[in-house]
Amino acid sequence: MRVGFAGTPEFAQVALARLHGAGHELPLVLTQPDRPAGRGMKLQASPVKQFALAHGIPVAQPRSLRLDGKYPDEAQAGRQALEAAALDVLVVAAYGLILPQWVLDLPRLGCLNIHASLLPRWRGAAPIHRAIEAGDFHTGITIMQMDAGLDTGDMLLVERIDIAPDDTTATLHDRLAALGGHLIVQALEAAAHGSLQRTPQPAEGVTYAHKVEKAEAAIDWRLPAEAIARRVRAFDPFPGASFECAGETLKLWQAQARPGPAGTPGTVLAAGPGEWLVACGQGALALQVVQRPGGKRQPVAALLQARPVAVGSVLAPAAD
Questions:
Q1: CA distance 55 to 46
Q2: CA distance 143 to 93
Q3: Residue 120 lies in a domain
Q4: Distances in whole angstroms, Cα of residue 209 to Cα of each of 128, 169, 203
Q5: Beta strands in 129-227 (DSSP E)
Q6: Are residues 160 and 240 in the same domain?
């Protein structure tokens, strides 16, 4: 089949590589414009663009596909590129732009989305983060026939995987990306034989995975320790959970909830070799891996040896 692809980050790049490896003709890739990144803030191509260029696949990077939007010239150029590609199908994975109706209608088989949740749970921008944060035991990949709604289209293929107790967004992302690449190849094979079945999403169980904001990184010690521990895993690698200690903003990358004595949330209950225990709204949080500004991730024992923390001291109060 002639398969167009729209995607931007590593999650999408994995799927693009699987489609390329499966032998599909890829006449066009859409991806977000290059963005400043790194210490020098130099323009950097997305993982999808890097893969496409390395394999001789044409790339278009319109800032919008809305013909009546802010960038009509770029949208029109994008339309011309899509029309010239004469696509059978457009595969979409974490693209970052809303597709207007004309795009959804253009390919012969429409647009198929690789979504990292068990729809209708966790529609929206951050399904991996929110599944971990909520304490879900399972998640998965849904291959969806796109419509004009936000992740509301019919389901085509669904596969579930377990969320491990120590999974972070980084580790779960990698497993889901691999699964997404596997399932989209399956979906296109079924579509080629006319055997792809559409199932409407159930009306019950809809949740929305809102975009993760940097402001969410600040640890609120008034929350239960279990909830904070889940957030630490959900916000790894971005934006990272953080707290204030002795005038420094530290990032917390690994922690475990423990039963703990009552105490003012944020109070340091223990700070000995290998143990940094902090009172929470319910229970206590054992801090295990932290990072100082400009430094690397390190076990708490190393940090406490370099800069001891007093038992009974209270970490910066949670923001209201």
A1: 14
A2: 10
A3: yes
A4: 8, 13, 17
A5: 138-145, 155-162, 208-209
A6: no
In which residue ranges of the chain is pLDDT below 70? 317-320
**CB atoms < 10 A from the CB of 246, how many?**
12
pLDDT of residue 320: 47
* Burial class of residue 302 (count of CB atoms within 10 Å of its CB; 0-12, 13-18, 19+): exposed
Give per-residue pLDDT as tens, 1-30. Answer: 999 999 999 999 999 999 999 999 999 999
Tokens (6 digits) for 179: 């699964």
Closest residue by Cα to residue 100 from 30, 171, 12: 30
Residue 166 CA to its chain's centroid (Å): 17
Q: Are 290 and 300 in contact (CB under 8 A)?
A: yes
The answer on 142 and 66 residing in a single domain is yes
| CATH code, domain carrying 194 | 3.40.50.170
43 forms bridges with which residues in the sheet? 36
Backbone phi, psi, residue 288, to 5°: -120, -40
pLDDT computed for residue 262 by the predictor: 74
Residue carrying structure tokens 């107790």? 165
Q: How far apart are CA 94 and CA 32, in angstroms?
A: 10
Amino acid occupying residue 204: E
**8 and 117, same domain (yes or no):** yes
C-alpha–C-alpha distance, residues 10 and 233, integer Å: 19
| pTM listed for this prediction | 0.94
